[in-house]
Specification:
Elements lengths: L4 E6 L5 H12 L2 E4 H14 L7 H9 L3 E5 L6 E5 L2 E2 L7 H11 L2 H15 L4 E5 L2 H5 L5 E6 L2 H14 L6 H17 L12 E4 L5 H24 L2
Parallel strand pairs: 1-6, 1-7, 2-6, 7-8
Antiparallel strand pairs: 3-4, 4-5
Helix pairs in contact: 1-9, 2-4, 2-5, 4-8, 7-8
This protein binds 2'-deoxycytidine-5'-monophosphate (DC).
The site of 2'-deoxycytidine-5'-monophosphate has 14 residues, from helix 2, helix 4 and helix 8.
Length: about 230
């Protein structure tokens, strides 16, 4: 089967990652969580604070940040490593969520992460989720999805996820975090969250998880077939 890049962008907590993961599994593609990179830089920043306004300090910090993805040998899930240490669980904590939009709005941080994302996606056969994947990282992606869901639904889903991992947060706390990140991520100057004209919008508020995954898989298969027939005719 042919290989394309699938970009899945959208608001915080609308199910991008779980959808992207399931789509990648079905197609035999690699799943890449671009948000994990911004979270890893944020985790580094919280442990080794530096002046976010000072470009020299930001550049110096970025030189000390080595992000790698490895596969969990049991589940096959993506694990995020920061400077050789598995930080997958740490980067999902609320302290990181509450600071990540600020860190992700810095131009130098974005430039470094985008370069890494392009490298990782260069072989195609990749599903990447984030905020600017279809608009900036892979403007030529074979399929671009823009996912949304209403705030209440997103907060409830996130609460369930975090509780299952043993974290205790209130629904209001999660709602506030999601709403604040939506606002910051959509209004920032550098690569704001936007729906590009060629992206397919998918509101998942009323959808069952399996159905939203099937919609993306069907669209992806359509695009892959199109690319294959184009390639064989040229
Ligand atoms: O996907 P996520 O919620 O784990 O992402 C965490 C934050 O990282 C999100 O609030 C904004 C930022 N982000 C970004 O600016 N660009 C991306 N491509 C992915 C995430």
């Amino acid at each position: 089967m042919g290989k394309i890049v699938i970009a899945i962008d959208g608001q915080s907590g609308c199910g991008k990652s779980s959808t992207a993961k399931a789509v990648a599994k079905n197609l035999g593609y690699t799943y890449l969580d671009s948000g994990a990179m911004y979270r890893a830089v944020t985790f580094y920043y919280l442990q080794n604070p530096f002046d976010l306004e000072d470009s020299n300090a930001v550049s110096e910090a970025l030189e000390n940040v080595e992000i790698e993805f490895k596969k969990d040998p049991v589940s096959g899930d993506q694990l995020t490593f920061l400077n050789g240490k598995n930080v997958e669980s740490e980067i999902r904590q609320m302290e990181v969520s509450n600071n990540v939009s600020k860190v992700a709005s810095i131009k130098l941080v974005r430039q470094a992460m985008v370069a890494k994302q392009r490298k990782l996606g260069s072989a195609k056969g990749v599903v990447m989720d984030g905020r600017d994947i279809g608009s900036v990282v892979f403007p030529d992606a074979g399929l671009k999805m823009f996912m949304t869901a209403d705030l209440e639904t997103r907060a409830k889903r996130r609460l369930k996820e975090l509780s299952a991992e043993g974290n205790v947060y209130s629904l209001d706390e999660i709602k506030n975090n999601l709403a604040k990140r939506d606002e910051l991520d959509s209004s920032r100057e550098e690569s704001p969250l936007i729906k590009t004209a060629d992206a397919v919008e998918l509101d998942t508020s009323e959808l069952k998880f399996e159905d939203q995954v099937d919609i993306v898989i069907d669209l992806a298969r359509e695009r892959i077939e199109k690319e294959e027939s184009y390639a064989s005719n040229n």
